[in-house]
């Protein structure tokens, strides 16, 4: 699909890359200065809804820049303009509800790097689209780097074909330990009560089971979640048959609160994990946030993270089916 829409002009941003013929992120700007207001933007998004949805899948990342998106309410209006269903976030990141379908992104310390991941990759149903809005750009750092997932699979297959196929055939098993209450001093500090929306253990077990998680209760009131088997790679409809690196192997392998093994309990080579980490970083795409930016990610196609940042930084998020 060639780019063709009179309601946007194509711009550029620092850090853009051309990946297999696709510009990531594709930057869309107002065609004229008097078309930058939020009402004009909402109108063109609704008019071009189907075209825009296909553009997200084609380019994986689409950045709206130069529009007058002032606050969380404006951002929520953009989310609502597409009519996509909401999907409740389930995961370790501490977050706060702001307005409508808008939440804060991970509230963990800005000094920490949030490792690359597909949103809610471990849950049975992951968001199709992830939307991010920059309300306050950081003075330094704080980028949201992202990685075309298929490139990781391609390169891992080139270097470790047998290990990749074994992990894919067996599947992966993950574990993660969470406290009862939230701990915002940690980027993985969301408590199980908040994550599962209940303080009742029996109800928590029921909800966890529906999400494909097993729970093991700990003496300190915390819980160890066990998830698996989960796929290493996946192919999603409409994305050129690309084999996505749809896992969180590197992010959870051998960490203090988490683990990643093959589903049969076999350990995964440290050499394989380390090289995968290097490949992900080599394939990453960086861009600098500007105030008012709205970024659309195809969550099926992209890993994303967060660079350490100087304060202040405020990026809001919405997740959609």
Automatic annotation (TrEMBL):
Superkingdom assignment: Eukaryota
Keyword ATP-binding: no
InterPro entries: AlphaKG_dependent_hydroxylases, TauD-like_sf, TauD/TfdA-like
Keyword set, alphabetical order: Oxidoreductase
GO MF terms, alphabetically ordered: oxidoreductase activity
SUPFAM superfamilies: Clavaminate synthase-like
Domain TauD/TfdA-like, chain residue ranges per copy: 31-318
KW DNA-binding (keyword) present: no
Protein's name in the database: TauD/TfdA-like domain-containing protein
Species of the source: Hibiscus trionum (Flower of an hour)
